[in-house]
């Protein structure tokens, strides 16, 4: 599903260059639930942005569902994101002047879905995230946990094969965070959606089948449920 081959990302800061990711390899299979952990500034969000085609690597290749992201132009990458990827962010990123229903329908309207189809998709998604009665509410009228469920419904609108979540529970209390993790886990198990989630929270990472640890731009180790541990640096150098 996802293949990251020798990927680096270098940011230029004036005349300085900053290596946010350094020659990383990863393979993520279809239907996996992967947590990415590591200290702040280690390159986790950068990795997620590259996987979602929001940015391109400086060197190396990323393939998602057989699509070589490096070979897409900007317009093709926008289409790729719209069709394949659902993004979920720590701060929800809902549009405050739009209702819950309108926020969820955003990507559908960009895809020229008819009004009747849009309404039925939105209503089904509202049921899936247990917010049936909130279609006409505005984001400011909802709790953080409810807003994140709207963001997940929005991410699901185009039936993505991949959800990329950047600290989805970072702003939530334990109960609401647990509800969000349960929802992501359900989507992964029941719908077969691949989930890649950046998190600081060890509890959140336990929901995943596999934990990838990033430090200083390097994927250092992986842990799979069941105690399997794999030093990827050693593998890479072998
Ligand atoms: P994490 O998600 O692990 O906190 P990030 O991927 O956000 O880390 O950032 C990794 C490093 O790259 C940080 O030192 C950050 O300051 C730097 N960085 C991220 N985005 C940019 C950018 N657009 N321009 C310059 N430096 C950046």
How would you explain this protein's 3D organization?
It is a single chain. With 238 residues, this protein is an alpha/beta fold. The chain has one domain: Rossmann fold (3-Layer(aba) Sandwich). It is built from 8 helices and 11 strands. The strands form 2 sheets. Strands 6-7-8-3-9-10-11 form a 7-stranded mixed β-sheet, sandwiched between helices. Strands 2-1-4-5 form a 4-stranded antiparallel β-sheet, with helices on one face. A hairpin with a 4-residue loop joins strand 10 (218-224) and strand 11. The longest helix is centred in the last third of the chain and has 18 residues, at 174-191. It is globular, with a radius of gyration of 18 Å. It starts with a strand and ends with a helix. The model is unreliable at 227-238 (pLDDT under 50).
Strand order, main sheet: write it out: 6-7-8-3-9-10-11
Average pLDDT figure: 91
User: Would you count the extended β strands for me?
Assistant: 11
**Into how many domains do the coordinates divide?**
1
Measure the end-to-end span: 24 Å
Ligands bound here?
adenosine-5'-diphosphate
Low-confidence stretches are 227-238
Give the ordered list of helices and strands: EEEHEEHEHHHEHEHEEEH
Helical percent range? 25-40%
Q: Determine and state the CATH class.
A: Alpha Beta
The major β-sheet equals:
7 strands, mixed
Count of individual helical segments? 8
Using the 3D structure, state the CATH architecture: 3-Layer(aba) Sandwich
Structural class: alpha/beta
Rg over C-alpha atoms, rounded to the nearest angstrom: 18 Å
CATH fold label: Rossmann fold
What best-fitting shape do the alpha-carbon axes yield? globular
